[in-house]
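Good morning C.,

I know you're traveling, so I'll keep this short. The sequence:
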Amino acid sequence: MNPDRMQKQFFRRLGDAGMVCRLFETLPDVYFFVKNSKGQIVAANANFAKRMGGKEERDIIGKTGFDLCPEELARKYEADDQQVMQTGKALINRIELNQDSDGSVDWLVTNKIPLYGKNGKTIGIAGVARNVKEADIFFQPYDRLAKVIQLISKEFNRNINVAELAAMVHMSLSQFERKFRKVFRMSPRQYIMNTRINNACVKMGDSSKSLTEIALEVGFYDHSAFTKQFVGYMGMTPKAYRKKFMPSSE
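The tokens, ready to paste straight into the viewer:
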């Protein structure tokens, strides 16, 4: 029998497609989701639901990235989703920022594929994501950057010289920047700035700290510089972010 025909016949007989989705509940380090053409979530595993701020899948069904995430991040997710649906090409191993339920943001390795209806037209996308730190297989070819990432994670609040990072892994500055961009799709300086913003988001949950204190703690020389960079990355001011995603800190 023709393999394609056999596969189609089997799935036509499948009474509940959700049974396949439930397989992802057994994978503790994977975030799984399905969206329709409007960007609304129609299925997700428990990990993804909790990351988006829900207690279970039904809490986020029908919601979009704009309902659950900062506007700037939501715009990026929507752009990727639309690209996948319009081109019919999967998005593979995209490294991107994603917000967790505690208001922090970190890096995920994301894969998205188009989903087609019976008429052959795209009706949505399905995706899986893993935390960058847990995606060891993907990063094996880039082990040389591990020391750099560890240093940035620990010392992001000081003025880190990119040439210093290149020397750590015995690369020229140009070679290092090319390698870094290949993995993270951004420059080392942008990565450092993202790390600062991430840590600022986490610290905003502490109501005893002012935004100015947080700005200084994560490496900005004043509140104005912090606000400018935060708006650029998150699409809103630190004050607006804290009010929207950290209401208990107000």
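Safe travels,
E.
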